Amino acid sequence: MEGTKDDSKKTSPNNIKECALHETPRGYGTMSPEEYITERVNPFFEWYDKKAKRFKKLYLWMRSITVVGGAVVPVLINLQINKIEIVTTLLSVLVIVFISLESVFHFREQWKNYRTTYQLLSQEYFNYVTADGPYRALEEQEAFLNFVERVESAISAESTTTLNVLTTQPNNKKIESQMIKGVKKS
Q1: Phi, psi of 32 (to 5 degrees)
Q2: Is the distance from CB of 106 to CB of 165 less than 8 angstroms?
C-alpha cells in the first residue's frame, strides 16, 4: 500500500539503518564506497531534503497566517460590522494556536537544521567524488573512511540538534514572573 503510515516508516533513515542491521551481516570493512553512498548517504540525503521542504512550508504558512491575522484583528475591531467580535475572536484564537504550535514543534529551527544537514551531506559527497577539500591527496581507502566518518558525524549532529530543539524548555523564570505579576494585579 503506497502512502500509508507504514510506508513512511520504511523510508525513514533510522528505519533504513535498523533494516540494514537485520539483514545478512557484512564482513568487517567489506562495504564499498558505492554501496555506502547508495545504502546510507542517498536515503539520508533524500530524507533531509523532504523534511526541510516540509518544515519550511509549515513554518512559512503558519508564520504568514500569524502575521496577517495579527495585523487584521486590530483593523477589524475598529469596523462597525454586525457580529465582528466573533470573527476577531476566532482569528485571534487561530493566531494564538499557530504561535503556540510553532513554540512546540519549532518548524523554523527544524527546517534550518534539516536544510543545513542536507547541504553538508551534499558538500561532503561532491568533495569526496571529486577528491577535493579534505579528501585531496588522500589514498582512496583513507578518503573513503574519512568520508564515512564525516557523514556519520553530520547525521549524529543533526539528531542531537533536533532532540535539543524539541526538548528545550522555555525560560520558566520569565513565565513564572509574568504569572506572578498577573496574580498580584488581580
Answers
A1: -85, 160
A2: yes
Which element (helix H / strand E) includes 36? helix 33-36
Residue written as grid cell 564506497: 33
CB-CB neighbours of 96 under 10 Å = 13
Residue pair 65/98 in contact (Cβ under 8 Å)? The answer is yes
- Amino acid at position 69, single letter: G
Supply the pTM of this predicted model.
0.76
The predicted-structure confidence for 29-73, as pLDDT tens digits, reads as follows 999 999 999 999 999 999 999 999 999 999 999 999 999 999 999
Those residues whose C-beta lies under 8 Å from the C-beta of residue 111, and which sit 6 or more positions away, are: 52, 55, 56, 58, 59
From CA 103, how far away is CA 49, in angstroms rounded? 23
In this structure, what C-alpha cell is assigned to residue 180? 506572578
| Residues near 117 by beta carbon (within 8 Å), at least 6 away in sequence | 48, 154, 155, 157, 158
At 90, the amino acid letter reads: L
**Contact assessment for residue 158 and residue 110, using Cβ atoms and an 8 Å cutoff:** no
C-alpha cell at 62: 503558519
Comparing CA positions, the residue from 11, 21, 20 lying closest to residue 44 is: 11
Q: How many residues does the chain have?
A: 186
